[in-house]
Specification:
Length: 380
């Protein structure tokens, strides 16, 4: 990113909220329009991206304006001209547009990122890495292999499963034995960064505990730990018997789910009409959210696509048909769409079965906050 100066008022080429194909924002809903009354210039957009990303990488729990301002490093203050006063004014503007929300916690007022804000963030140009380093941690992932990255995620989840109440304060969570820290490359900065990614996926929950944080394992995290986690073969660690029992029970439940999925399916039906397909998408979304994603509320699009293919055949799950149906549901405010923040958290096949947008991969479906999903499950 080239340095920006006060005189640089040239508008970014797509400085208004970019529109994904088939996802035109509804002008009646202010939360999906640009947060400024006029087209923001590039500097303002970069400032917005920085402030929204602060909360996106923090995970759940929210932060006060003072805590957020202390995380604005010298590069951001210099390159983005992001003083505490400017940051405060921009946060208030973002709140007015529905991209940020506030809530009281005792005497504190905490800022939180809304779902509209998370979606808006995916459309914005991000500041350069050196500008963002203070808020997300000085993490360089270029030297981390996929094998090690997956092992880091598996260990951090297993660490929480093994803890009392499946939760740990930040200090204890980062007290990783040296031999394991060396084998997994899990210095505190990298562990904190990886937990922020896990929180975005709904695998862990991050809450404020005094001036620090506390991490807890979610049911979705346990499902991932059983179904998709990969450990390094040479890394050795011990855990309690109750942890083994929890893993065995979760694996047994997963095996039953797979047996049900592998049962002989009904004969292939005709390709449903668009209204029928829309109701089927809503029904499968509801069922998956109840079964596996009740805590995070985020249901992967690739899983919905797979179920639609099982029910109606591959033709009904093609991108040129199903993507349009899902986008129609978004426009009608019957479903929400959420982008994935780190492509390394999903396989290439899963990404291919998601929906590709201009500025990111739409990976999850969720219920819009304004209203619940109203469809009833269809008979299978």
């Amino acid at each position: 990113m080239e340095p920006l100066h006060p005189s640089d008022n040239k508008s970014h080429a797509d400085s208004a909220l970019p529109v994904r194909p088939g996802l035109e924002p509804d002008p009646a809903r202010p939360a999906t329009s640009s947060p400024a009354s006029s087209t923001p210039d590039r500097l303002t957009l970069l400032q917005q991206a920085f402030l929204l990303e602060q909360l996106a990488t923090h995970g759940a729990g929210g932060m006060t304006g003072g805590e957020l301002n202390r995380k604005i490093g010298a590069p951001a203050r210099r390159e983005l001209q992001l003083s505490s006063d400017v940051a405060g004014k921009l946060r208030n503007q973002l709140k007015e547009q529905g991209y940020l929300a506030t809530r009281k916690n005792g005497r504190k007022i905490l800022f939180e990122l809304t779902e509209a804000g998370r979606t808006y963030l995916t459309t914005l140009e991000r500041p350069a890495a050196n500008v963002r380093a203070r808020q997300s941690g000085p993490v360089d992932e270029s030297g981390i292999t996929d094998e090690v990255r997956d092992a880091q995620k598996a260990f951090l989840l297993l660490q929480l499963l093994d803890a009392d109440g499946r939760r740990l304060p930040k200090g204890k969570a980062n007290a990783i034995p040296k031999r394991l820290s060396a084998a997994l490359g899990l210095k505190p900065a990298i562990a904190n960064y990886r937990r922020a990614r896990l929180a975005e996926q709904g695998y862990i929950r991050i809450t404020l505990a005094g001036k620090s944080e506390e991490y807890s394992l979610t049911p979705d995290g346990l499902d991932y730990l059983v179904a998709g986690a990969t450990h390094l073969q040479h890394a050795e660690f011990t855990f309690k018997g109750r942890t083994l029992n929890a893993l065995v029970a979760a694996a047994r439940e997963l095996s039953l789910e797979r047996d049900r999925a592998a049962a002989p399916s009904a004969p292939q039906r005709r390709v449903p009409t668009r209204p029928e397909l829309a109701e089927a998408v809503l029904a499968e979304f509801q069922e998956l959210r109840r079964e596996r994603y009740s805590r995070s509320g985020l249901v992967p699009i690739h899983e919905v696509r797979q179920r639609i293919a099982e029910r109606f055949g591959p033709a009904a799950a093609r991108h040129d048909l199903l993507d349009d149906v899902i986008q129609d549901l978004w426009r009608q405010h019957r479903l929400g769409l959420e982008a994935i923040s780190d492509l390394a958290d999903a396989s290439q096949e899963q990404l291919n079965d998601s929906i590709q947008g201009i500025s990111g991969t739409l990976f999850y479906l969720e219920a819009p906050r304004e209203q619940p999903v109203t469809s009833e499950p269809l008979p299978r």
